[in-house]
Amino acid sequence: MSTGTTSEATPGTASPASPAEIRAFVLAALREMNYDTSEVDDDTPLGPAGADLESLALAELGVRVEERFGVRFEDDEAEQLGTMTVGGFGAAVAARLRAAVAGGPA
């Protein structure tokens, strides 16, 4: 993960992505990473109690989200991803995007 600013937006982005768009991206990324998403919803934890992503998969998901949406996660934040739900993760990314567009910290 990156060690830079935690709320960078992709240059030229007119408006931040919606939580629904972020959720769709996360589910597509999980499928590309060979995870079964048939029973995953907003309340499903990303970690072992739900989608069952291990640390390496959580890191990969974080990097994919960083690349797609232009947000950054600090290394210590990456460890927290496993405790988040799919919906909570999408909301956190959306909040960072809104803060970046507004010019403030997330």
Question: Could you please describe the fold and organization of this structure?
Answer:
By secondary structure, the protein is mainly α. It has helices at residues 19-32, 55-69, 75-78, 86-102. The longest helix has 17 residues, at 86-102. Mean pLDDT is 82; it is low at 1-14. InterPro entries: ACP-like_sf, PP-bd_ACP. Pfam families: PP-binding. This is Acyl carrier protein.
Features of this protein?
106 residues; mainly alpha; globular; disordered N terminus
Topology diagram in text:
Blueprint (H helix, E strand, L loop, with lengths): L18 H14 L22 H15 L5 H4 L7 H17 L4
Summarize the structure.
With 106 residues, the protein is mainly α. The protein has helices at residues 19-32, 55-69, 75-78, 86-102.
Supply the number of helical segments: 4
Q: Which series of helices and strands comes N to C?
A: HHHH
Measured as a percent range, the helix fraction is 40-55%
Task: Report the radius of gyration as a whole number of Å.
Answer: 13 Å
Question: Beta fraction of the residues?
Answer: under 5%
Class based on secondary structure composition and strand pairing: mainly alpha
Mean pLDDT score: 82
**Spans with pLDDT under 50 lasting ≥5 residues?**
1-14
Distance between the termini: 17 Å
- What's the count of strands? 0
Shape: globular
The largest β sheet comes out as: none
